[in-house]
């Protein structure tokens, strides 16, 4: 993953809070390593319409449900967690929302509209499932008191609208506010494979008939080592039938890499946090990509970054 120079590089935005958080982001590591320029934007910029200036948007370790990653049980007493919650609540009020969950829903809906209007969205880790959960829970309080000051709706599960989701359907919320999980979309807690036998396989596509997934799956390997995250991979039977599966562990019922179109745009979800750090914890050292120049897991990230710059060639008749 050397420095990348393109004739017409896509304008890239990374959705990231301006404050320092105790984790890193595999995509920004890859962008920096490959010397690909990008801008950081957050809620204010998204709601102000700045997404129209970008071809490509990345979401990573984010919680669009307003539950602060459901870190309360493990980190609720940590100073960084309290400061993050306080800042998020202040930001929500300054932008005209009474709750963080309402702000995040508005951001998610704006991003969805951005894709429909022709943008490209690439999401990893908790930004994948929390995005769809927030959309499905529009108008429904799924946050407990420690997150938004009042109890959640006891009938929240029955009020979810899966038709608003990009990727997932028929999922069940994890209602315990102290459990480090949003729903049963993610396989982290139910995962049966161990680190040594955790692999997923990329699908092979025809460059003539399926140019988009062919570009997104280009790699030096077809079988890749898995890696964990707050959202590690997706339960296969909860992925919408219309969604294209590009990478999976079929035997385990785990889907890792998915893609679809929405209106004039496209989106890709990639489960896990860091392809070269199997179990990345809050506060762990950043991955040194100079040690992994041929990383197959990071190659998928780079495929998505460069995809908007690819020009479709007319087929010969």
The figure for the number of domains is 1
- The number of helical elements comes to 9
Low-confidence segments: 1-6, 311-317
SSE topology string: EHEHEHHHEHHEHEEEEEH
The 3D shape can be described as globular
Supply the CATH architecture. Answer: 3-Layer(aba) Sandwich
Helix content: 25-40%
What is the end-to-end distance?
A: 36 Å
Using only C-alpha atoms, the radius of gyration works out to 19 Å
Beta content: 5-15%
* DSSP, total strands: 10
On the 0-100 scale, what is the average pLDDT? 91
Oligomer: single chain
Main sheet specs:
10 strands, mixed
Question: What would CATH call the class?
Answer: Alpha Beta
What structural category do the secondary elements indicate? alpha/beta
Q: Look at the structure and name the CATH superfamily.
A: Class I glutamine amidotransferase (GATase) domain
CATH third-level topology:
Rossmann fold
Would you write up a description of this structure?
This protein has a single domain (12-309), classed as Rossmann fold. 42% of the residues are buried. The chain is of the alpha/beta class. It has helices at 26-33, 43-47, 72-75, 79-94, 100-116, 126-136, 145-148, 211-216, 296-306, and strands spanning 12-15, 39-41, 56-59, 120-124, 199-202, 223-225, 234-235, 244-249, 254-262, 265-270. Helix 1 (26-33) crosses helix 9 and helix 5 (100-116) crosses helix 6. Residues 1-6 and 311-317 have low confidence and may be disordered. It is globular, with a radius of gyration of 19 Å. A hairpin with a 2-residue loop joins strand 9 (254-262) and strand 10. The two termini are 36 Å apart. Strands 1, 2, 3, 4, 5, 6, 7, 8, 9 and 10 form a 10-stranded mixed sheet that branches.
